[in-house]
Amino acid sequence: MLNTINSIFRVPELRKKILITVGLLFIYRIGSHVPLPGVNIDVIKTLQAEMFGALGSLVGIFNAISAGGLDQCTLFSLGIMPYISSSIIFSLLVKVVPALEKLSKEGASGQKKINQYTRLLTVPICIVQSLMVVVGVMGTRATGNVFIVEPELYASFAYKLMCITGITAGTIFLMWLGEQITEYGVGNGISLLIMAGIVADLPSIFMNQLDQISGGFAEPQALVVISFLFIGVVISVVFITKGQRRIPIQQAKLTRGRKMYGGQRHYLPFKVNQAGVMPVIFASALLTIPSLLFRGLRLDVLDYYFDYGGFWYVTVYIVLVFFFAYFWNSLMFQPTEMANNLKEHGSFIPGIRPGKRTAEFLENVMVRITLVGASFLAFIAVFPMFVTRSLDAPGLLSRFLGGTTILIVVGVALDLVDKINSYLRMRDYEGFMKKGRGRAR
Known about the structure:
Elements: H1 2-10, H2 12-31, H3 41-50, H4 53-66, H5 81-96, H6 98-104, H7 108-137, H8 151-154, H9 157-184, H10 189-214, H11 220-242, E1 244-251, E2 253-256, E3 259-262, E4 265-271, H12 278-296, H13 300-305, H14 311-332, H15 335-344, E5 347-348, H16 356-391, H17 395-398, H18 403-434
Antiparallel strand pairs: 1-4, 1-5, 2-3
Helix pairs in contact: 2-9, 2-10, 4-10, 4-12, 5-6, 5-7, 6-7, 7-9, 9-10, 10-18, 11-16, 11-18, 12-14, 14-16, 15-16
C-alpha cells in the first residue's frame, strides 16, 4: 500500500494532476461556507434541527446528489444540481429526438455541441431553482419570529435579484470547476465535487453521535454496530458495482491473399447495476411528493400511511426503484443497434444467429441482469430506514449506510482508483521498454 502511494507521487504528471484536483476541491469547500448577504447563520442551524419527515428527506436527497447546501443559503446552495438535471434531460432527448441522436453519432464534434447545449440549458434551470430557494427557503422562519433574512431587507426586489444572481453564478462556477478537474486533474470533476460534499459532512455527523453518547443520550453499541454495517454495505456495493455479465463475441475470419485476419475472441461486458444511482434518485424525489401534498392538504390519515419508513412507504419505494431501473435501461440500452453493429463488423455471439436473434438474446440478458441490479438498489434504498427504526440511530448517520450517498461515494472512489491505476500502468510499461537501453529510473 505504501509503495503504491509512493509510486503515485513519483510520477510527475500524476503528482501534478492530484495536486490540481486537491486544490480545486479546496476552493469548492471554501465557497460552500460563504453565506448569502443578509442571512442569519444561527437561524439556519435552528431550521436544520427542526427539519423532519418528507421535507428533511427531500433536502437531504438534494444535498447528496448536488454537492450543495440547500438548507444553508450559501453561494453554492444549488451545487451542481442544475447541470445534472440538464445532463439527464439531454441524455433522454438524445434517445428520442432524431436530430440529437444523429448529432451524438458524429463523434467528438457532435458530443461537443451537445455539451454546449447542456451548459446553456443549465442557466435557466439555475434561475428557476434559485428563485425557489429565495422564495421557499429564505422566506421561512424558525421557532418564534426570528427570520433567516430580516423582513425589511427580504421585501426588497433588488435584494432578491442579487441573491438569485449570486446563486446562479455559484452554480456556473461549480460547473466550470468540475470541467477543469476533468481536464487537468484526475477523475470526473462533477462526480468528485459531489463526493467531496458528501464526505465533508461525515466527520461532523460522527462527532455529533459521539457527543450524544458522552452525554448519555445514545448507546455506544449503536455506533459500533453502524460502523460494522457501513463496512459490510461498502463491500457489497463494490462487489455489485464491479460485477459484470460477460457475453463472448467471436470475430469472423477473413482471408486476404495469403494472410488470414480476425478470428479473435472478445466479450461484451454488461454491468449488473447498469442503471447506477439514477433509479434511487428518481424514486426518492417522486416519493416525497405525496407526503408533501398530504401534509399541505392536512390529510392526516393518508400522511400516516406514507410515514417515512412505514409499510406503504417502503412498498411504493421498492416498486418505484424497480420501475425506474427498467425504464432507464430501456432508454439507454439499444439491443437492435448493438446487434447491427456486431453484424457490420463481422462479429457474432457463438450459437446465436446475427441480426434479430442476437438482439433478442441481448435484450433477454439485460432483463435478467436488471432484475438483479434493481433488487440490490431496492435493498440499498430501504436499508437506512430499517437501521433508523431498529437501532434508533440518527437519520443523517444511517443515510450513509444506503441510498444515493453510499452509491455515489463508492462509485466515484472506484472510478478514481481505476484512473490512477491506468496512469501507473502506463508508467510501468514505459519504464520496462526503456530498461533495455541501459537507462533506469
